Fold these 2 entries.
Entry 1:
Amino acid sequence: MPEAQQPAAVEAAVQPVLRLSGVTKRFGALTANNAISLDLQGGEILALLGENGAGKTTLMSILFGHYVADDGEIAAFGAPLPAGSPKAAIAAGIGMVHQHFTLGENLSVLDNIVLGTEPLWALGQNSGNAKQKVNELAGRFGLDIDPQRLIRDLSVGERQRVEILKALYRGARILILDEPTAVLTPQEVESFFATLKAMVADGLSIIFISHKLNEVMAIADRVAVLRQGSLVADFPIAEASRESLAEAMVGRAVELPERETQSAGDTVLNLQDVSLRDSAGKTLLDNVSLTLKAGEVLGIAGVSGNGQGPLADLLSGLAAPDAGALQVLGDRVTKVSPAAMLNRGIGRVPEDRHATGVIGDFSVEENLVLEVYGDSRFCRFGFLKGAALRRNAETLIEDFDIRGADPQTTTRSLSGGNMQKVILARVLTEKPRVILANQPTRGLDVGAAATVQRLLFAACAEGAGVILISEDLEELLQMSDRVAVLYQGRLSDSMAVEEADLRTLGLMMAGHGPGEVGDAP
Amino acid sequence: MDILEIFVSLGFWAALVRMATPLIFGTLGELICERAGVLNLGIEGIMTMGAMVAWMWVYQGGDLWTAVLVAAVFGALFGLLHSGFSVYLGVSQHVTGIGITLLASALSYFAFRMLLPDVTTPPKIDPFKPYPIPGLSELPFLGEVLFTQSPLTYLAFFLVPVVGYGLYRTPLGLALRMVGENPMAVEAQGIDVHRLRTAAVMLGSAFMAVGGAFLTISVFDAFYIGMINGRGWICVALVIFASWRPGKALLGALLFAAFEALQIRVQQSASAFIPYQFFLMMPYVLSILAMIVMSRRAAYPKALLVPFRKGER
């Protein structure tokens, strides 16, 4: 080891930059963190893995001073860290990038970075110095960004760079990243990983919170797994495998749902040269054509903002095409409305389950009939039939294994996975012929995602066609029969999933045609 | 009088600058509040209160400049009341603001009547006199229009770059702009969101009250009921017109004052065949049109109207 020649370096390598001993946190009866002891070495990337609710974020919030632990100690660079003070954490060289960014949209990058770093009552600002420092940090770690730009003009990936620069600007030597890749495109993830490598090469230490196994395998030096508040595994990445990590996370072996290939049936959905413009005349969808057959899954890949939203709106009946023809089950749809699409047998799993999937303040039984409450099963003379609603909810909760819910439960209080099950139950019980699934597993943990996939496969087996819009390429490749790529409102020809691979799709998502992919660098 | 004649007359331009003054104070005040994320619809009442207490202070024998200070303090107190409800309790800023307006104007009239129960015609005071700035006031045209005004008018124009500098060139201004955009980001830096917002609302309200005081202790020499006459509401609109920027706020105030000054003069010349109500309406119609043009791409503070509660995402 080269360090052996320098005693000081040996000590630095031996002493962890961060040491958690016996950290415990309880919320009422729930033990969110149970006596967790964990070391972070200088210059390493530690992945903190766990399902939603395993206690990852709680642990990091304690570390960063948002919460005070009930028991246990934390030491940074050998000195005890005062509890419950983000300021002390920053002073100790800890920086945190939250999953939800805290940036001011109408302010510049520089403004966002320097906020709070100068005495509040100073009569002026030294923005020249600050800009130089930001540019220097950005150059060093490959976080290129113009400090004068406004946050609202930045992509999500660029906003994340601003958050990282914010932490670095405050002198962070330990960086905590909470689910940093959840919002990034595959290409952005690559450059983000390059940044992480540049940072550890510079001597920073990184804690990387994630529930995506492949990313953890790709970037981490060491992995710690939390399950139900306890540390269940802590080993170098070389000793880990996807299967062992998944098992450690879930506590049992997880099988990814497989489905037997089946011959595709009749055409259930057909789009011919459909175009869509927004009110300002900007083209959202440009001559999109696609055909979906019963029993197949058509995956739509693409970087978000390239037309996925408009395509979903179109199929949901929220937007009418400006040109082209839309056929459902062989019938041309002329009058477009959400109700018309529902009546024609299109089931919708919307992208944002909180905002458009369920009404959070309504009960589960109400959410389960949101699309059919006018039906004679649930309504007579304009009045809802309470007993019918309840029976319907009881049956569906049982059939779809919606946990933590009874018919009267407020839907908001359900976990993401169970909320998604409510939506799927509502959609699938109506036996739709076409299912629009927009990001159906986003934000769900491995177990819940597998359940969602299994339910969609089951619907397929019963003869529904599924349009799967997803930014998760692995999921697309695993679930789809055919894949097509949306780029700037244009949809590529679909290709059989056997012919597609991550690299090809990634390049097509960046605007390269399938023909040029072979020549691209 | 011909329209062209109006535009070349000194009186029109001098009146424009004078009429813009209370609007500049009010608009800057509202702008500071809204930049911090708090809509202050108490402005109409706070201006009334400022007009009344300043006038009363002078009427009772007080000094003019002290009267300005007293108005500012009263304004800040009503700002504190507003933020007690809208910032700390997080209740609707619209409802609180209207409540403050009703309370402050009614209290002003009530106090005025209580202190002067017997007067029938509004009593008069000695108001601020125009102060010609030595040298500059000798300039042809500009001297009379810009440099022979009330000291409060100079103060209003001086405050525009001061507020601009404060907002855009100081750490406190940055924190204030950020608290109107994303309070979470401010809190994450260990700055108290509620205190910062309260301070902004109090400062803004002090500006509004001074704008009201200008009317009673500079333009007129008396206080009477209904004298603010919607100027506060105009300021709320001007902030949108200005896209929340002090420089544009000055422009908007001058533009509205121009319509107003023009309206008075056109009314006198053309009222024979056009009902005068048409001219009364004109400044408002023109303001609405100007606002539509100016504010189409306005980027309003993202956290405006959104109360901040600790520990909520």
Entry 2:
Amino acid sequence: MGEPIAKYRDVHKSFGEVEVLKGIDLDIGSAEKVALIGPSGSGKTTIIRLLMTLENPTMGTIEVNGKNLWHMESKNGLVPANEKYLREVRGDIGMVFQHFNLFPHMTILENCMTAPINVKKESKESARKRSLEMLEKVGLADKVDLYPNQLSGGQKQRVAMARALVMRPKIMLFDEVTSALDPELVGEVLEVIRDIAEEGEMAMVLVTHEMDFALDIADRVLFLNDGVIEADGPPSEIIENPKSERLKDFLSRFTSSNGNHA
Amino acid sequence: MTWSWEVFFEVIPIIFKGMWITVGLTIVCYLFAAIFGFFWLFMDRIPFKPANWLFKWIAEFIRSTPPLVQLFFIYYAWPMVPVIGVSLNPFSAAVLGLGIHFSTYLSEVYRSGIESVEKGQWEAATALNLSTSQKWFKVILPQAIPPTIPMLGNYLIIMFKEVPLASTIGVVAMLHLANDYGAQYYKYVEPLTVVAIFFLILSYPSALLIKKLEDKYNRRFDKKYVTES
């Protein structure tokens, strides 16, 4: 799997008195598709928010593409990272959120174009070209001039994915991207994620409750419970042949009537 | 009391001259308040708690004391303060006094606008790796400002109506001229009526204009989700 794109070493995270992550050690391969499952409050989302630098770890280190996330080298050894350094590291990471977080004052196309123009200093023309390509990929080429609240939830989430893809991240994070959607809209979003996954070169971390989906696209499933990684392995092992009682118990809640995991 | 149309028409040009001072003073005070409003917001965001409290308290103090007292203090008392005391002309004193007073209100308006933008917008902007200033200018402020336009406009009109306070420290604007005329000819009804009419003529269309701006900015957010066509 080559050099890992992301490395967690003994990462702890507390919110006030509550310790959400209690020592995470994790390597994510450069093209690996990782599904994070576990009960709510187990720290799944926190793991990827730490990687996106939306939270900072209470203890431990995280590296992305060989660069320490929160500390940078200086004459005096490691010092807390400044914004400039953080922006360098963040360039490799993309994220899609549960609640889409599209910019409501921009059209779909502008949503996609704003980062390449402002962050990568691309020309308007090349940003537009790339954005249109990505919007086509997610099946929204005909909506580019609409505003986000003219779209359905599923469409919004597809725009959010196009917006992240335009920046060519090396690792993309999906934070329960189907949880806020009406059931009938989940499929179209999963379809796009599957397409992205099949292209292969990008690492993906998905926090998800869609067990079937995890089984289908992930190379690896992590079961998080109470702030620690309790099980880690290929989906065939974790989802189809769970060993620990807690994991079995967790998965049983997703078992549908015909005995398959839904 | 007798109403004289002759006096009425005679004072119109006199007070009209003062109108420019009133309008000018309003604009300058408002610009001062609009810019200084960011100062309070900024002071609230520096990562040093005691400073936050201190400035919060100062702003609260300014909000809770009458602007007239503040004007008198700046114009009459401040020059007597040792070391930092400076004597100001009436116009500057009025700009400083009313400007600072209203800046404390405007900073609250800014705050409410900024807080109305969802946390997810900041996070999406971070995830797209926008710089701090890009986050503010491309993402947050374009969403924070439109909902505050009615409040900002209201404060403009309220300030316009508070500007005559400046006549108490000698700014020669509409009210001052009306008063002078009254004192000279012992006729108060007509000049003060003209002052009121001028205020009405200026503030009513402003209110309409603000309403229009508000509609314009809110329209594009209001487009409802349309089903697949």
